[in-house]
Amino acid sequence: MTQESSPRHLVLVDGSGFIFRAFHALPPMHSPDGTPVNAVYGFTNMLTRLMRDHVGTHLAVIFDANRRTFRNDLYADYKAHRPEPPEDLRPQFALVRDAARALAVPSVELEGWEADDLLAAYARHMVETGGRCTIVSSDKDLMQLIRPGVELLDPIKQKPITAAEVDAKFGVSPDKVVDVQALMGDSVDNVPGVPGIGPKTASALIAEFGDLDSVLAAAEGMKPSKRRDNLLAHADAARMSRDLVRLRDDAPLPLSVDAMGCHEPDGDELAAWLETMGFRSLSQRLGMKVTAARGSMGRPASSPAPTPVPTVDSAPYTGYETVTDAAALEVWVARARDAGVCAVDTETSGLDPLACELVGVSLAVAPGQACYIPLRHDGDLEHPVGAQIPAATCLDILRSLLADPAVLKVFQNAKFDLLVLGRAGVETIAPVDDTMLISYAQSAGAHGQGMDELSQLHLGHAPITYDAVTGTGRNRVPFSRVDLRRATDYAAEDADVTLRLWQVLRPQLRPNRALALYEEMERPLIGVLADMERAGIAVDAQELRRMSADFAVRMEAIEGDLHRLAGRSFNVGSPKQLGEILFDEMGLPGGKRMKSGAWGTDSSVLQELAEQGHELPEKILDWRQLAKLKSTYADALVGQINPETGRVHTSFQMAVTSTGRLSSNEPNLQNIPIRTEEGGRIRRAFVAQPGHVLVSADYSQIELRLLADAADIAPLREAFALGQDIHARTASEVFGIPLDQLDARERRRAKAINFGIIYGISAFGLARQLKISPGEARSYIDAYFARYPGIRDFMERMKEEARAKGYVTTALGRRCYVPGIAERNGARRAYAERQAINAPLQGGAADIIKRAMVRLSRDLACSDLRAQMLLQVHDELLFEVAEGDAPALADLVRGVMEGAASLSVPLVVETGIGANWADAH
User: Fold this and answer.
1) Regarding the domain delimited by 649-713+807-921, which CATH topology (the fold level of the hierarchy) does it fall under?
2) Residue extents of the structural domains in the chain
3) pLDDT digit string, tens, across residues 184-241
4) Residue 5 region by backbone torsions, left for phi larger than 0, else alpha for psi between -120 and 50, else beta
5) DSSP letter (8 states) at residue 740
6) Which of helix, strand or coil describes residue 130?
7) CATH topology for the 321-512 domain
8) Is the pLDDT of residue 10 over 80?
9) What is the CA radius of gyration of the chain?
């Protein structure tokens, strides 16, 4: 699957719906020349938010050309009772088309046809050509179009209108809506229908007989009643009504879908049009440079104009306000509502969002316009703090702003702030943008995603550091003790920088082809991961203590063996002493001194010595493995149990890896060995709460499947399609041995090659892994590439792409930057080349499981299953579920995960159920 082969997604706006909704929702407003513009303003506002929040490859607005269509020829009185548009609305119809043009969104209309017919025709065209269509409207007449590939999106509630909503309104599925409407008629559009038959009767008749024709055919045999008489007398009217309400999906397409491709508007043209309209708050929200205007929206032309909005690069990073009373905070909230977007940042007493205390909140509503609201600064005798807003009062005021769907809240690392504010009692914060993830979606691996680094990179500004206001080392003070002036300079600047970064980075998403990745994957994943972190997972503390004691005993026994092998006692945990024993005293070969002069004794050195048959380095590796498991898990996990929840809460890092993979820390649950006995014991300590079980769902060989798909390897694709043992099939293909004559040795070697190829394994590396000579390993690799030349072509193609662009791209369009690809140093360049080969596969797998997580979160929220997603460990998801719901959950998870991407090979997910993680996995 390639980015180019991803299905097209056409988003269509019901223009009339936007216009009338805006006109009736907003008070009268006028442009500087006195023209009514409230509908234009509302239309522009809704369209810009749609462009920001809903991702498609193509976008257009569909309008009605005029009131007379072919339906008037069928029935002269069709829509005859509709009143003329209000006087103030008429001049705005042309202006909304100007708005669409200024935003670079095509407008489509056609004489003789209604907009609804064009929507139906484009929807049909998209489905027939393998794409999908989203129609942004809540018009009941469009519900008949809902089907696989065609979605109706409510523009106010910002949620899809599904078959369930259609059933609630009409009592039938979408394909039967026309029949129900034909029976009941429509007084608004003057569709006659059958007198005396309302919505409930119509849906009951269609449910009983199947469709309109069957109802009319059965009318003669119905028991005598007024309803029967009306059905017989008005049968022709019902059939004509069906022709009136049925949308014509065979309507001509006035504009090709190719001409509806999404484009960024011309900044100068848009800014000029917004200024002409007097839409100054919209200009501010969109980051336009605004000059003094003759008037402004909603004001007489003679009223004072507001202060011009500074551009991102000109406003100073100073002059921030410290807000210490409720009235001042209300002013800032009003400014945020007027802007429609504000940056938000929190200051806390620590780095654990589930345990720290909220110390203060910052807001920014425009570049250079930011404030800090201290909540829990305590000062000291020399530096008293003075009055502060009580935290509860502040949060009560902020709560409605943070939940307001009309105001976008921008964060840097939103998940942290959402957890902090959630712990403080603010449960609803939406909609949300995250500058860290906006950047990460475009530049994974190119640079760090921290605010300070992004600020210097994109704004040319070095923000005040945390150390500068709190001190360092022994002199560091908690942020709550920082002087309010200095605290304001630091905290408000963070919000200011975040808003400016948003204004710079957000518009780059579409040109960098990262908008869909951000909107459909990274952005919705913020809430999913926050819920997972908040949920945590239970651990058996007693089992961990028993495990720790057992590991200690085994480590002590190994230490005795090591002292015996060395001929003396030494500190097993000291690399310096170990190096002296291995290379000075025992004289083992291959030792290399580091810059400090000590011998290197990392795992690669010890592994090489162990493979040469030396027992002491082999036992050191065993001891180090036990020591790591003991300290990192058996001992540490007990101390990481949250006293409030009794569970362990890991933190998922969303923007650290270069491939899009999540990582976790405090504790890191992604490094537990999978195939060792000790790793199994660690997983056994993760348990379900009483009455529940854990369900594990794991992608099977997903990176190999992506390789078979991306490199188009027919034998591997066939093996996956047939459900064959892929390693046995590879062994048979490469070594020329029939499948029924293979032994475990050949399969093991093929498995090592299959997985090694993904990471660019060398002949030396394969030789060491299989304990064979480098020459023999080279012959295996040569035979592999001779049988599968497409894989070598793929590898060379990825390296060339990285050299040409500086990055490679996953199947779902993520750019994975490879900074070292142009290194002069051969070893570093070779490492970068291996990254270039692996990144599309590892990154592709990361994208797929992220997409599955987003879909599963939505499906679980709509289901009756008592389940919670707890962990993601690379290709595996772990859930906790009520015992009785476990089989149903496993089926749901398997279906969603296997359908998360369309490849030329099937995705396969293996599920397991158990009282603990080991049993489930």
Assistant:
1) Alpha-Beta Plaits (3.30.70)
2) 9-259, 321-512, 649-713+807-921
3) 988 778 888 999 898 889 999 998 899 999 999 998 888 888 889 889 999 999 999 8
4) alpha
5) G
6) coil
7) Nucleotidyltransferase; domain 5 (3.30.420)
8) yes
9) 33
Coil vs helix vs strand at 602: coil
C-alpha 904/C-alpha 709 separation (Å) is: 6
- Token match 């339906």: residue? 71
Q: What band does 289 get if pLDDT is binned at 50, 70 and 90?
A: low
Closest to 816 measured CA to CA, from 445, 558, 470, 464:
445
Contact 366, 338 (CB under 8 A): no
CA distance linking residue 842 with residue 828, whole number of Å = 20
**Helix, strand or coil, per DSSP, at residue 831:** helix
The gap from C-alpha 630 to its chain's centroid, in whole angstroms, comes to 35
Strand 321-322 versus strand 369-374 pairing type:
parallel
| Helix, coil or strand: residue 671 | coil
Strand partners, 816: 444, 808
Average of pLDDT values for 752-769? Answer: 80
**Six-digit token pair at 495?**
């919000």
Give CA–CA dist 344/363, Å, rounded.
5
What are 882's strand-pairing partners?
692
Distances (CA, A) of 494 to 364, 464, 614, 664: 9, 8, 56, 25
Query: Do 321-512 and 649-713+807-921 have matching folds?
Result: no
In DSSP notation, 190-251 reads TB---TT--HHHHHHHHHHHSSHHHHHHHGGGSPSSHHHHHHHHTHHHHHHHHHHHS--TT-
Contact 107, 15 (CB under 8 A): yes
Residue 487, pLDDT > 90, answer yes
The string of DSSP codes covering 15-44 is HHHHHHHHHHHS---B-TTS-B-HHHHHHH
Q: Distance from first CA to last CA of the chain, Å, rounded?
A: 29
CA separation for the pair 639, 191 (Å, rounded): 71
Query: Which residue(s) pair with 495 in the sheet?
Result: none
pLDDT tens digits, 688-708? 999 999 999 999 999 999 999
The tokens for 729 are 């099939």
Torsions phi, psi for 701 (to 5 deg): 50, 45
- Angle 789-805/774-787 helices, nearest 10 degrees? 90
Side-chain half-sphere exposure of 660, counting CA atoms within 13 A: 33
9-259: CATH topology:
Rossmann fold (3.40.50)
List CB contacts of 314: < 8 A, sequence separation 6 or more.
367
Record the tokens describing residue 793, joined without a space.
């072509």
Phi, psi of 255 (to 5 degrees): -135, 135
Rounded to an integer, what distance in angstroms lies between the CA atom of residue 803 and that of residue 831? 13
CA distance 917 to 603: 28
> How far are the Cα atoms of 637, 662, 678, 878 from residue 648, in angstroms, in the given order?
7, 18, 20, 14
Tokens of 635: 């001992």
List Cα–Cα distances, 510 to 51, 106, 442, 514, in angstroms: 10, 17, 10, 6
**pLDDT(666) > 70:** yes
Report the candidate in 415, 421, 388 with the shortest Cα–Cα distance to residue 403: 421
Coil vs helix vs strand at 177: helix
Cα(137)–Cα(219) distance, rounded to whole angstroms? Answer: 36
User: Please, are residues 725 and 754 in contact by the beta-carbon 8 Å criterion?
Assistant: no
Cis peptide preceding 431, ω within 30 of 0:
yes
